[in-house]
Specification:
Length: 447
Amino acid sequence: MRRDSFGSRFGALVALAGSAVGLGNLWRFPYLVGENGGAAFIIIYIVFVFLICLPIFISEFIVGRRSQKNAFAAFRDLSGGSGWRWVGLMTVIVPVVVTSYYSVIGGWAVEYLFKSFTFSFTAEAQSVIDTMFSDFTSSPWRPLICHTAFLCVTALIVVMGIKGGIEKFSKIMMPLLFVIVMAIAVYSLTLSGSHKGVEYLFRPDFSKIDAKSCAAALGQAFFSLSLGFGTIMTYASYVDKKENIMFQSTATAVSDLMFALIAGIAVMPAVFAFGLDPQSGPGLVFETLPYVFSQMPAGGLVAILFFIALLVAAITSSISMFEVGVAYLIEEKKMSRIAACSVLLAVCWSVGALCSLSFGPLSNVRLAGMNIFDFFDNLSSNILMTLGSLLTVLFVGWRLKKTEIYDEFTNGGTISANVRIFGILWFLIRYVAPVAVAVVFLSGIIA
Ligand code: PHE
């Protein structure tokens, strides 16, 4: 049977950007900027994106497109059947776990979209809205139902295939997402007092930067660019051999960064305009913002738009993680697409349900001192993702042949711009990226 693939350059691009742009941009980035001192964090983040993450992104792209296989088979076949296959297996398993808890937060976005349609954010005091959030997340049923809904939509899109499902959905949703986030950012800038938020975002205070915030910036850059999870590899395996890897990778990194910055501009000025604290952590989007919406003119409409954006961004990412496991089951376990989606749906639902309940009935179940959700989040997005990225870049830099990489990156020597920069890329992949990842990662653990 012929392998499914993306139907056009634009289609591949929006799918890749869709994977990258997600909760990481709209939810995680603004609160991390808040927690780590604003502009200085952003500058470090940008340096990491281009110096470390882009070479890793390109490495994943090369592995995927060269092999035209699922992540497990890509490592296995390109390494001639060696132990590297276990790294491949890890990059298949991790996104299954991440999809599970990602979909819990996706479910929260479903609930909050529903709440904004019913104009629930009308509180006079922020404490009312905070309580609304903790009541919701700690109740057993509602978050579970929302998690189920979110996951079913994810599976439904993936069942329709690469061209007919993932690409089609991304082509419609990504432009919509851009328009919405842009509109909110512009509106947020018009609020009086918003300049303090802009200053916060763009005036660096380097005294706030230490090893921990550098590790946080790198972790965020990995998460936001979907690295180390087999996702880019899997999507790249559906990209046409004629496409330019440098172009597709840079365009994805740039759009991801742009979305993060625009999201920052949408959120921070509004938070400052109402005199609130930007350092409120993960609750920023579900507690601080709804309160902001309750106070601002036309806040009801802005709330609806914001949570539509959050939901869309989350779905275009969750489908990319889901596809990693689906591709594996189809190609290695010879399942039909629908069977593969059903199996994964069941697995992700169950793991996700545990994560969801860990905010309520299961809150006293502790793994390494954390609740189930935090445990999975920490394990996968702080440790396994970094490990996956590091191993991938080592695989490309030290295990594959230089000629193979050259051939894939330059399309057989036909893209002259890529031929010219290959030397730099090779150096970044072989030395800079692995060393930088190891240093930042270790110093973050020690600090
Ligand atoms: N990049 C996504 C985001 O920013 C998350 C993600 C991670 C998606 C890994 C796919 C794989 O939310």
